[in-house]
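Q: What would this complex look like in 3D?
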Amino acid sequence: MQVTLNVKRYDPEAADPTACFEEFRIEAESHFTVLDGLIKVREEVDPSLAVRCSCRASICGSCAMRVNGHAALACKTKLSTSLHDGAVSVEPMGNQRVVKDLVTDASLFWGKIRAVEPFLQPKGPEPEEEYIASNDAMLNLITPMGCIMCGACVSDCTVLEVDKNFLGPAALAKAYRFVGDPRDEADADRLSTLNEYGGAWDCTRCYECVQVCPKGVAPMDRIMELREAIQRAGLPSTIGSRHVDSFARSVARSGWLDETLLAVESWGKFNVPKLMASAPVGIRALVRGKLPKGGPLHHKRPGAKNVERIFRRLEHAPSTLAAVASKSGSAHD
Amino acid sequence: MKYAFYPGCVARGGTPELYDSTIAVAAKLGIELDEIVGAACTGAGVLQEKGLKLGDTLNARTFALAERMGLTTILTICSTCQGVMSQANHRLLNDAAYLAEINEELKPEGLEYTGRVVVKHLVWVLVEEVGLDTLRPLVVNPLPSLKVAPFYGCYILRPSWALGLDENPGREFYLERIIEACGAEPVNFPGRTKCCGFPILLINEANSTAMVGNHTASAKEHGADAMVTPCPLCHLNLDGYQPKAAAQRGEKIGLPILHLPQLLGLAFGISPKELGLQKHIVSAKPVLEKASVRA
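A: Here is my prediction, written as structure tokens for the whole assembly.
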């Protein structure tokens, strides 16, 4: 079949190094992946096309790029199902500096991974033999351990788009992998770091990373479990943890969310500068007549008693990660 | 057509104009909305940070309440509620033991979720059940000179496997189809499926506001006169924090943000006041002028 690959090209050494799309028409076999198509372009049409790839079997994580606007492994993406009117668009990953064409600089990615200290930190005397973890204690870590460091999640992270200080989905999923490991005993330090600006609370829960991860790591889900672990670790409260607590109190008490109280309790009742700075937003809304249905005061919804009962039963129910992070089955037990 | 109506907290709180415009548009379309009395907040992804079981139980309770009303389709007008309820339903329906465990928690109230509920956002109901062919004849005030940027928000699209996008890939373009059915022109722009930043508004306002600024300014650069969203949380941020976003960027933006039923309502000839267009932070007047409607 005849297909068109619209490839975003960029050559830093060109006279005018501006990124722009170039169209390549090739004859593709029905079994072709996007990577097969790009390799054919490089071998038969333009040998200057820069593409990074190695295993061609979704194991090495080298060929992540944006296919039709979303990050994907080019070797795992079928060309035939990616076509719109016979064409597919291919761009380098986002949030990372483009070296040339489809090749990006991975230093931001690895910098974030290094920042979470991705190695086991056991304490106490070294065991005579290897550190042993029970099978059950490791089950919860199978998904984050499946990460192949391709960077797809980092490419499409909407927070990194506006703030490069954020640790990002790959590094936070990696942090989870060690927080949950029964052999690691640096949880207090790890969670304390993740509780700070740029850590677990800065994720905007947009699900981009869950959607594009080719290995089912679902980094955002891991970040939510880290938030849960942070709350259970008894660390000093942050806006993030107060936000969850206030939200829960409000729903437990009345069945639904008290938006005004959520803002006040998240920032802190005595955080006068913040409350003053945000007052104009509230005042504008009131001036425009944005009064809640049922009046300005937050009232209980019908059935609130039953909602409260469910909270009493389940708000502090043990979670998977918390159970693992309790280090049962640790080598030192 | 009768649905178990789940408006969500924000349509009852921060964006009451969404609630009112939905009721007005539903009446025109012959959609009967029977509100689920006593339904709790879905958790909006926030309560889920305290553990999934708490949120899943609250949502299973809502599903059971709908079943008790004799209705199996829940209609929501909030993308976030759609996403959170879809994911909860996905987990409950794919694990019988988990569903049984959750049902134990509902027993004291005499409720049981039998797994028959489907949750559908208004935008899905409009295209898949009402049908665009039914909708088009109701357009008495087509909006040919209005260019509208669709802003989906996250939870109605991702993760695609929990939201039926694999079976219904068209769902990724329903807003465009509805904009066209209203006689207006959809505008494509890079932010159409990205995050508005609302979930971190209270936690990291600078980042959240930067997202608002990026998407509204970019939609405007691509020629949009207005933006339409199926999510009230996106609306709160894109509308309410647009003045701050403009100040942060040091430029004017001034892009009116419409709730989906407000766009439909204008095309159906419903008065702007009934649609609550005067309640927006960013004035909707430029839209009314383009739509040739008096405020």
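A: To summarize the key features: The first strand of chain A starts at residue 2 and ends at 9. Residues 321-333 of chain A have pLDDT under 50 and may be disordered.
Q: Very helpful, thank you.
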